Amino acid sequence: MKKVYVAGHRGLVGSATVKALAAAGSYEIVTRTHDELDLCDRKATREFFMSERPDYVVMCAAKVGGILANASLPVDFLHNNLAIQISVFDGAHAAGIERMIFLGSSCIYPRDCPQPIREDYLLSGPLEATNRPYALAKIAGVESCWSFNRQYQTRYLALMPTNLYGPGDNYHPDTSHVLPALMRRFHVAKMNRDPRVVAWGSGMPRREFMYSLDIGDAIAFLLGLPASDFGALTSPDIAPLINVGVGEDITIRELAELVKATVSYEGDLMFDTTKPDGTPRKLLDVTRLRTLGWEAKTSLGVGLQATYEHFLRDQEA
Ligand SMILES: NC(=O)C1=CN([C@@H]2O[C@H](COP(=O)(O)OP(=O)(O)OC[C@H]3O[C@@H](n4cnc5c(N)ncnc54)[C@H](OP(=O)(O)O)[C@@H]3O)[C@@H](O)[C@H]2O)C=CC1
Ligand SMILES: C[C@H]1O[C@H](OP(=O)(O)OP(=O)(O)OC[C@H]2O[C@@H](n3cnc4c(=O)[nH]c(N)nc43)[C@H](O)[C@@H]2O)[C@@H](O)[C@@H](O)C1=O
Fold it and tell me: Which of 42, 146, 216, 239 is the 20 to 30 Å CA partner of 260?
């Protein structure tokens, strides 16, 4: 039985990863809360790795947020993520772990690159300004995977997930991503009988949304690949990155209408064009992952319904 350390196990992706790995039944899962282990603390992180000696690591701990949080806290998004990554790569390497899955993000690709976005478009053009610090930290994470693989023949793989949502997401009105932000706003407006809800930007940008339990499933699938397949993905000769998406996108206006219907809100939807749009479009090319035999299972409609039910249960708790 392999021992897996899931960093950030209480977050959106970490909790879904623990669920998928537990369901696989072939892992001993190791976790630490942020309070128990601050991953910015390199010494404490190395001590943790040397005492626990996990076989595998899934790196879901990061400073994460939506467009406004990214734009207003650039130092936090750059430095916290770099610090976490340096500690975890250092500890993982010192402990000689066999496999690592590092979580990047679709926002690391150039702002205006061709669609759908292939893995080899990385570093082919300028980044989107609203999340450049976060994107640069994540690009450093991808480069760390590759550098360790080249210098030390490690097996570190970087996943580039699209925008995610699901149970346990961050619903803070200012710092959250669009889908949980709108779900909460429509719900509050319905409860208060407000006549209108305001969404940010023009409503024109296009995004691709994946249910968090699907990313957990993708991580479990990749971590469980035979050594030859995992080795091929992390060979020193190739950039070890792989896109994880659903293969289709919608406009923010279409998303807002879907969330509005899920919540059964009957007022009006308005857009505040003084707020940033961010990247005009981010649709991932998922050919590489599909060729390996994995596809997302949850439609946006089903995922939205399940997420809203979870949101309502949390409100009652
Ligand atoms: N959510 C999304 O739409 C997307 C996410 N990703 C990537 O997936 C990964 C996970 O994201 P997500 O689950 O959404 O993020 P969350 O914010 O939900 O979870 C992040 C987790 O990391 C923990 N954490 C943060 N800083 C530290 C630290 N210094 N020491 C220890 N633990 C820490 C947090 O704990 P605490 O809350 O206690 O600080 C939290 O449990 C990230 O790498 C992110 O970039 C990629 C694409 C899209
Ligand atoms: C996952 C990804 O997430 C971020 O990039 P983003 O895709 O731009 O994320 P977002 O979800 O915040 O916005 C998507 C779109 O939606 C619009 N929008 C409307 N109304 C609300 C709203 O109420 N809140 C938010 N947050 N956005 C809104 C908003 O104006 C934008 O046009 C980065 O963290 C990036 O680094 C990253 O990795």
Answer: 216
